[in-house]
Amino acid sequence: MIDSSSAQNLELVINNRDSRNGHTLFGVLNYTKTPGGSRRLRSNILEPLVDAETINTRLDCVQELLQDEELFFGLQAVISKFLDTEQLLSILVQIPKQDTITKMKNTYSFTSADLIKMNERCQESLREIYHMTYLIVCKLLNEIYEHIHCLYKLSDIVSMLDMLLSFAHACTLSDYVRPEFTDTLAIKQGWHPILEKIAMEKPVSNNTYLSEGNNFVIITGPNMSGKSTYLKQIALCQIMAQIGSYVPAEYCSFRIAEQIFTRIGMDDDIETNASTFMKEMKEITYIIQNANDKSLIIIDELGRGTSAEEGIGICYAACEYLLNLKAFTLFATHFLELCHIDALYPNVENYHFEVQHVRSSAGNKEKIAYTYTLSKGYTEEKNYGNGFHYDFNLVKIV
Q1: Cα–Cα distance between 145 and 143 in angstroms, integer?
Q2: 241 C-beta neighbours (distance < 10 Å), count
Q3: What are phi and psi of 285, to 5 degrees?
Q4: Where are the alpha helices (DSSP H) in 261-307?
Q5: Tens digits of per-residue pLDDT, 161-173?
Q6: What letter does residue 303 receive in the DSSP assignment?
Q7: Which residue would you say has higher pLDDT here, 148 or 196?
Q8: Strand (E) or helix (H) holding 140
Q9: In this entry, which stretches build a coiled coil (predicted)?
Q10: CA distances (Å), 310 to each of 143, 177, 220, in order?
Q11: Secondary structure element (H or E) that encloses residue 352, with its range
């Protein structure tokens, strides 16, 4: 299950900046040739599978398509010739209407007695034609209804095959790998699939590891160091694996997630009269009330909408509650006080994104150089917000 807020945060089918561009997970994987295949892919992304056997069957199909070029290109050429069977089915199940209703604007008409007689004869003949047509169509539909299950099955097969061909096509454009399903979440050198599509090159890759004994990861690092991108990357890879697609990584293993929750972003909501803090509280409450041991939880900088003291308290309370679950949780924060929670809970790990300090050519100031590399432990950077003064020439403006 993926809630609407998580689907929006992860940009699964709609880009948050421009809904018309294809910088979404759907855009990354959509090489379908039929409308039914496109609809099938969209519904699968929003509602991934939770049965490992079904997922592995799909992965076997994708693997066979990748290994047999003749089969792959042959099916691609044929699949595009199929009509939209689902649209045809929607027409067939409609009940035909015998009476034809027409509407005309106000007009002046001139006629004679002979024209009236001829018009009546024409109308009578037309009614007979309509009646005969109605009987023929009803007979045809009755014959089709006996075999309509075949059309439904054909529609399902074509859309599924089209989606699997799309997965195989996406693999040929990047170095994706087949995922495994175990009790751990392990990704070796994984990268963000949407970022790769935007940049037209492979982004910086990082490792990820969560298990039952190490199911809670706290991530720290300066602003713009890559925390949010990394969190989204993990959720996107999980979804790709559970719909039967290959994953952007050198190696990956996933635990089946029954639910995927995210708390990302810092926006208010005018329509619901919710401030930033109110929206944060609603989202974290929803996660706490619905998460279970098989959930994947992504939380990015909870508590930004209030004071530092209150934010730390809320984060600490949320962490303690989630730590009692066996859910896989990744928690990004600027509150370094949370990093010491690993002394109380052995299933907590600290990671941070490294940065380097580079002195300018003039030698009078330092700039932050981002490596976008995840390392063990929590960050030792402090007051890193001041470094942005120079990056954005704020000092000169002020």
Answers
A1: 6
A2: 27
A3: -65, -40
A4: 276-290
A5: 999 999 999 999 9
A6: T
A7: 196
A8: helix 113-145
A9: none
A10: 69, 43, 19
A11: strand 348-359
